[in-house]
Amino acid sequence: MIGLRVLWAIIAIAGVPLVLVGYLFLVERGLLKTKIERRNKVRPWLWLLPPFILLAAFLIYPVINTFVLSFLNANSTKFIGIKNYAYIFTDNSMLIVLRNNLLWLVLFTLVTVTVGLLIAVLTDRVRYESVAKALIFLPMAVSFTAASVIWRFMYQFQPKGQTQVGTVNAILSIFPNFQPQAWLSNPSENNFALIIVGIWMWTGFAMVILSAGLKGIPDSLLEAARMDGANELQIFFKVTIPLLWSTITVVTTTLLINVLKIFDIVYVMTNGNLGTEVIANRMYKEMFNYQNFGRASAIAVILLIAIIPVMVLNIKRFGQQGGR
Q1: Residue 160 lies in a domain
Q2: Same-domain check for residues 8 and 119
Q3: Cα-flanking dihedrals φ and ψ of residue 79, to 5°?
Q4: 241 lies in which domain range?
Q5: What is the rounded distance in angstroms from the CA atom of residue 166 to the CA atom of residue 21?
């Protein structure tokens, strides 16, 4: 079995590029026999044919197949209509999943963009700007899995009276009357604890993009506002934010896309237990734990439908920023 997998890996790594090179070689040889006008018209399409085939095989077909499977039963042998979709919006456990994702969407995005913007503005005015930004961006260099493991240790809980080995409880224990908290086990606070991890990781991303936009604001506009008597708070809200609005929108939509697909943090830290499950985590469980391909496909379709409008808005914003 291992030998067969190695053989397929070799074929995929070496065979596919060789086939592609051979195809392009034959295409160019064939085009030499045609008129130059026809050659210039046909060549782009022939070169784009392999990517189109791969796109159809690995993106378009899976999307269509997933959509079809979402109307079938657990083992994909019987058509059951919209029962899988009805389950998503009526089952109590799924409603909790949707509620959690909504909490992630609002709280994670709002706090990450706000903190990233504030840090970008503040670090822009200090001499050690590059060092401060590097430290804040550092969590983005850590994988989501590694960050989740780190924060599991930081959230560790010991009963009161015992030594707190978790960083969070150990720090908060310096305050009088503080009761150590089981951050990941308490349903009233575990979702917020997970969202904090996401904010910690993504604030650096928001800061870097917003800082780049901030650098593009002409100093003359800020100086003119100061000369007109505006204080720094008025400049921030009436000059800086309006000029940064397109960049803020791009950052916000990017974060929305990523938070809709949030999986790693929840899977590693709680596996969706104790009321922390999100859409991507539930889709994984339906597919691999419960072997219910119909429900998993329906959840995947819902997730895709939720992401598409945000992606379209993001693409439009990138186009506007590029002057197209």
Answers
A1: yes
A2: no
A3: -75, 125
A4: 84-321
A5: 55
Interval 286-296: pLDDT, tens: 999 999 999 99
In a domain, 258, yes or no: yes
The verdict on pTM exceeding 0.90 is no
For residue 296, the number of C-alpha atoms closer than 13 Å in the C-beta half-sphere is: 16
HEC-encoded secondary structure of 83-136: HHHHHHHHCHHHHHHHHHHHHHHHHHHHHHHHHHHHHHHHHCCCCCHHHHHHHH
Asked if 122 contacts 214 with a C-beta cutoff of 8 angstroms, the reply is: no
Q: What tens digit of pLDDT does each residue of 157-194 get?
A: 888 878 888 899 989 888 888 888 899 998 889 999 99
User: Does one domain contain both 130 and 202?
Assistant: yes
Confidence of residue 13 (pLDDT cuts 50, 70, 90): confident
CATH of the domain at 235: 1.10.3720.10
Alpha helices in the chain (DSSP H): 2-10, 16-31, 36-55, 61-69, 83-90, 92-103, 109-123, 129-137, 144-154, 167-172, 190-215, 219-227, 232-235, 241-260, 264-269, 279-284, 293-321
**Mean pLDDT within 75-81:** 92
Tell me: do 191 and 295 sit in the same domain.
yes
- DSSP structure class, residue 141: G
Final residue before a domain boundary, out of 69, 94, 111: 69
**SS3 of 290-305:** CCCHHHHHHHHHHHHH
Q: Distance (Å, rounded) from C-alpha 256 to C-alpha 314?
A: 10
Tell me the average pLDDT of the chain: 88
Looking at the structure, do residues 50 and 93 belong to the same domain, yes or no?
A: no
Total domains present in the chain: 2
**Any idea which residue has 């999100």 for tokens?**
278
Residue 149: which residues within 8 A CB-CB, separation 6 or more?
268
User: Could you read off the pLDDT of 61-77 as tens digits, one per residue?
Assistant: 999 999 999 999 999 89
Question: Is 260 part of any domain?
Answer: yes
Same domain, 157 and 282: yes
Radius of gyration of the chain (CA): 26
With 0-12 CB in 10 A as exposed, 13-18 as middle and 19+ as buried, what is 10? exposed
Residues 106 and 52 in one domain: no
